[in-house]
């Protein structure tokens, strides 16, 4: 495979990092500060997109920064998979930045400069993780991301956020140090390299029990992916301001977790080794458990953001499930769900935040009839929900379709049932919200008062319309992402 | 003959004498003299390191006397690195000390600088010398000055901590001296290389065994290896901050260097790992040290004291790595001498800044510190990440080698201890961060302006710059660990 040496991946990572001092120094002038965020975000997106044509041609872009031992370096390598993730993260970052202005100013939050600075750091780390050439670099950015998001989760600096922040770190940092770090060093000890390659790095140095233990250490260790029982940080992290929940805890952070697991399965173990040892089924079982249980818990949540969080936990496992199928269709369905779920779920979170800013309502039971007041928000919510459930014409349909085909291809019919049941559960926990929103009666109506349209401010509504529209567009034009996955995984 | 190697040690020694005399002329003059002395020393150390990297080991004969009669400075890659480390940390610490020493000595800093320079002279000498007895003398210079320094510290607790330190320190020194006595008895020589040559023929001798064990116990007491650590926490906690900042990163690390020097140069790898059957036991001891240090740190309520227990824990890292019996473990141990010195220095610099403003650093005193001292806290956070082992800070890379070495040696218990200690350190530091970040006084959501009226009360710029630089150096050292390992450590171990 042809490799081009270029500094672009590094620049794409560093842009948001370099803008932080500027953000801090312009903290007394919010408008100036915010324009810098956009400038940096747009430069980042342009840098990422400028690499797209090369990647689509099947080439890779590489850059080694520091090699500290043979086979263990801090290095970037952009391939289809990383490109896909980087496009999603950097494009949604811009949308979220618009949203976050509306949200943070709408609620007159404190510490906005700190907020945007750590947000920029987090997005830097996300892009770094996407472009990592090896497990060491991935781990590095994974850890930076954990630490950078802590002040965002604990943003309110009150007792609830202290407890949530603690849980957040315990799960995320704890598992990565206790499980991923030794597993990674063991991989290096056995093979002398950590470089991702589609063939895997183990020739035949691993016995089946050792491979199983290592794989489980990685799958549970990357707890950002929310595999049960290491999921409970995600609902706890919902105390953060909604832009954080939207971009980080529906897209960037959680998907770095999933992305890491995908990388380890496809790049460290390699699909063939996993298939030989029949380890796909093990991972699939774990993922299925999470899919079903998290969906059931979501049903019982009354706080909208918590319901979305449990939905995220369940949807993340779809991705791992798909990859664990180890068949081309399954891999495709799983990985493209990174994109589809991102746009669907971020829309849902944007809606939840818009509702909160406009009405102060957090609980689903209070939202009856709200759709008449906030028609645009609820329409977007409906589209987002369709995307997550997997109904056409939203993008989510495409990934579910491929996942189901994947189960058939891999002859895992039982697991197909998991997908179908889960889709029903998804519908059960999302559609009533929309139905009651549009057709239920609000307090004002019961009092006999007129219903006026009372949307949140434009900075909140425009982003959620954009992501909703993209969710639908992705149903018709998923080609770019499909091609990226095909070149990235060689399927 | 090029005198640069001697200059590293002589410059601070002369400066110490001059600084003592200068007090009669002008109190502040002693600071300038100390600064000059250490600048010369640091500069010479850089030069010597370059020279050693280019053209190999330097043998410098004191006053021209040939070994084994005369005292020889033998500077190879390992001690060239440690020399530079000691000299530069001593120099940087002095830069940061100007105001805090005044504050702590009631504006009579002259005697402080004299003792400080003698202490540094001792450390540099210990590192440079190639003579076993000379090593003893210099260790004693270092120790005596530390006793004095600790006594200069906290009015109530300092003298007792110092006395305790004196008792245990003297015991340690006696063990080492006794060991050297046995060696002299058997070999008739005190020059390290000479002794090593003679020893290679008599590995089976029980006298040598006794000598080795005595030396090791002496050094372990001096480096505060658990359970011989009891003197350390109080001594470091109650000494003046400007001294704690240098003794914490350097003293124990130099002793680890001495241990490695004895193991590799004097007794030899073959003797330590093949003739003797001690390695497993020592690695277990190190494992326990790592865990015990971490657990004891957890129960501390004073930030400075908490950090001293982390030193006890880190000592376990290095001892374990050195006794792993393979190249990876030894690489990790040596790299960790450098990294741990830097990160402990960074931590104590940050603590020094806090003490300068807050006077005491019991954990509840730290509330709201992120707002009050943002730059200090930034440095502190970086150093803490390095101790936890978050890449790309340097702490991660030495841990990497140590764990890799443990895997290769099959010492999974040691690897597990390292992982657990990382977790413990994460808990420890996030406990501190939480206190600094959250403000229990404010109720509710904290919207609007309720938080914006924090006045920034930072430490003096001189302290901030040093603390910032050292904290950044943790990342630089981390990113260039490959270079350090390839140009210094691996060639040394070959």
Largest sheet of chain A: 3 strands, mixed
Please state the average pLDDT score of chain A: 88
Report the count of strand segments of chain A: 3
Apparent shape of chain A:
globular
The overall average pLDDT of chain B, rounded, is 88
Order of strands across the widest beta sheet of chain B? Answer: 1-2
Instruction: Give the spatial strand order of the biggest sheet of chain A.
Output: 1-2-3
Largest interface: A-B, 38 and 39 residues
**Strand-residue fraction of chain B?**
under 5%
Q: Name the helicity range of chain A.
A: over 70%
Q: Label the structural class of chain B.
A: mainly alpha
Order of helices and strands of chain A: EHHHEEHHHHHHHHHHHHHHHHHH
Oligomer: heterodimer
Structural class of chain A: mainly alpha
- Catalogue the unreliable spans of chain B: 442-452
Weakly predicted, low-confidence segments of chain A: none
Report on this structure.
The complex is a heterodimer of chains A (491) and B (494). Chain A is mostly helical and 491 residues long. Helices cover 74% and strands 4% of the residues of chain A. Chain A has a three-stranded mixed β-sheet. In chain A, β2 and β3 form a beta hairpin. In chain A, α1 packs antiparallel against α5, α5 packs antiparallel against α6 and α10 runs parallel beside α13. Chain A is globular and about 75 Å long. With 494 residues, chain B is mainly α. Chain B has a domain of 211 residues. Chain B has 20 helices and two strands. A two-stranded antiparallel ribbon of chain B has the order 1-2. Chains A and B meet through β2, β3, α6 and α7 of A and α17, α18 and α20 of B.
């Amino acid at each position: 495979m042809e490799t081009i040496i270029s500094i672009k991946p590094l620049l794409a990572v560093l842009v948001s990092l370099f803008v932080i001092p500027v953000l801090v120094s312009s903290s007394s002038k919010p408008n100036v500060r915010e324009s810098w965020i956009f400038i940096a975000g747009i430069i980042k997106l342009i840098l990422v997109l400028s690499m797209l044509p090369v990647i689509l041609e099947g080439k890779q872009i590489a850059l080694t920064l520091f090699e500290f031992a043979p086979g263990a370096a801090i290095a970037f390598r952009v391939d289809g998979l990383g490109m896909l993730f980087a496009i999603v993260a950097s494009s949604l970052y811009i949308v979220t930045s618009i949203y976050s202005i509306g949200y943070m100013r709408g609620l007159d939050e404190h510490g906005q400069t700190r907020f945007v600075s750590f947000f920029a750091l987090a997005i830097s780390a996300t892009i770094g993780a996407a472009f990592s050439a090896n497990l060491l670099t991935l781990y590095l950015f994974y850890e930076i991301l954990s630490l950078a998001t802590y002040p965002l989760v604990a943003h309110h600096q009150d007792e609830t956020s202290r407890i949530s922040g603690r849980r957040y770190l315990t799960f995320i940092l704890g598992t990565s140090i206790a499980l991923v770090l030794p597993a990674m060093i063991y991989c290096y000890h056995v093979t002398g390299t950590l470089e991702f390659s589609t063939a895997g790095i183990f020739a035949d140095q691993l016995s089946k029990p050792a491979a199983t233990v290592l794989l489980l250490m990685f799958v549970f260790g990357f707890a950002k992916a929310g595999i049960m029982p290491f999921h409970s940080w995600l609902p706890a992290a919902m105390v953060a301001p909604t832009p954080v929940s939207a971009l980080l805890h529906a897209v960037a952070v959680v998907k770095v977790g999933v992305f890491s697991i995908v990388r380890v399965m496809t790049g460290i173990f390699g699909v063939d080794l996993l298939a030989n040892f029949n380890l796909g089924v093990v991972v699939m079982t774990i993922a299925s458990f999470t899919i079903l249980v998290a969906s059931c818990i979501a049903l019982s949540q009354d706080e909208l953001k918590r319901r979305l969080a449990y939905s995220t936990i369940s949807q993340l496992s779809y991705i791992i499930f798909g990859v664990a199928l180890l068949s081309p269709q399954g891999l495709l369905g799983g990985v493209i769900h990174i994109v589809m779920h991102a746009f669907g779920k971020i829309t849902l979170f944007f809606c939840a935040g818009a509702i909160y800013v406009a009405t102060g309502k957090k609980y689903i039971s209070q939202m009856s009839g709200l759709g008449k007041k906030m028609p645009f928000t609820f329409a977007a919510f409906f589209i987002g929900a369709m995307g997550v459930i997997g109904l056409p014409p939203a993008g989510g349909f495409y990934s579910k379709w491929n996942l189901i085909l994947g189960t058939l291809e891999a002859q895992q019919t039982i697991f197909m049932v998991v997908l179908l049941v889960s889709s029903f559960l998804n519908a059960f926990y999302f559609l009533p919200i929309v139905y009651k929103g549009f057709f239920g009666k609000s307090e004002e109506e019961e009092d006999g008062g007129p219903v006026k349209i009372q949307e949140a401010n434009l900075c909140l509504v425009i982003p959620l319309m954009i992501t909703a529209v993209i969710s639908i567009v992705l149903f018709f034009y998923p080609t770019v992402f499909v091609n990226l996955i095909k070149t990235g995984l060689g399927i | 003959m090029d005198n640069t190697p001697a200059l590293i040690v002589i410059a601070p020694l002369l400066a110490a004498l001059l600084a003592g005399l200068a007090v009669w002329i002008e109190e502040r003059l002693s600071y300038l003299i100390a600064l000059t002395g250490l600048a010369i020393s640091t500069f010479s150390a850089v030069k010597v390191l370059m020279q050693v990297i280019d053209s190999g080991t330097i043998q410098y004969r004191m006053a021209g006397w040939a070994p084994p009669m005369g005292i020889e400075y033998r500077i190879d890659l390992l001690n060239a690195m440690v020399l530079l480390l000691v000299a530069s940390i001593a120099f940087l610490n002095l830069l940061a000390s100007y105001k805090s020493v005044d504050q702590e000595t009631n504006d009579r800093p002259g005697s402080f600088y004299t003792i400080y320079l003698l202490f540094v002279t001792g450390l540099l000498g210990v590192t440079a010398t190639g003579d076993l007895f000379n090593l003893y003398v210099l260790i004693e210079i270092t120790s005596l000055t530390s006793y004095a320094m600790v006594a200069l510290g906290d009015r109530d607790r300092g003298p007792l901590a110092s006395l305790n330190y004196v008792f245990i320190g003297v015991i340690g020194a006696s063990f080492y001296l006794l060991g050297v006595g046995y060696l002299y008895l058997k070999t008739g020589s005190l020059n390290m290389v000479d002794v090593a040559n003679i020893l290679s023929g008599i590995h089976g001798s029980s006298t040598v065994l006794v000598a080795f064990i005595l030396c090791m116990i002496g050094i372990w007491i001096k480096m505060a290896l658990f359970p011989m650590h009891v003197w350390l926490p109080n001594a470091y906690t109650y000494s003046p901050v400007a001294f704690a900042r240098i003794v914490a990163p350097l003293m124990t690390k130099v002793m680890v260097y001495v241990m490695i020097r004895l193991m590799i140069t004097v007794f030899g790898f073959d003797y330590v790992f093949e003739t003797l059957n001690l390695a497993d036991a020592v690695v277990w001891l190190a494992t326990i040290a790592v865990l015990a240090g971490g657990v004891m740190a957890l129960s501390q309520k004073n930030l400075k004291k908490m950090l001293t227990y982390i030193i006890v824990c880190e000592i376990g890292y290095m001892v374990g790595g050195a006794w792993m019996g393979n190249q990876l473990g030894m690489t990790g141990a040596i790299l960790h001498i450098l990294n741990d010195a830097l990160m402990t220095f960074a931590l104590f610099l940050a603590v020094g800044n806090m003490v300068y403003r807050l006077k005491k650093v019991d954990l509840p005193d730290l509330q709201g510190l992120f707002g009050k001292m943002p730059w200090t806290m930034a440095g502190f956070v970086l150093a803490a990440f390095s101790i936890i082992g978050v890449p790309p800070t340097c702490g991660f890379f030495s841990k990497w080698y140590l764990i890799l070495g443990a895997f290769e040696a099959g010492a999974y218990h040691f690897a597990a201890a390292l992982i657990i200690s990382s977790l413990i350190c994460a808990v420890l530091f996030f406990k501190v961060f939480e206190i600094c970040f959250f403000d229990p006084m404010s109720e509710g959501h904290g919207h609007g302006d309720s938080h914006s009226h924090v006045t920034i009360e930072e430490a003096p710029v001189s302290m901030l710059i040093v603390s910032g630089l050292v904290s950044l150096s943790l990342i630089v050292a981390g990113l260039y660990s490959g270079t350090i390992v390839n140009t210094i450590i691996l060639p040394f171990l070959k």
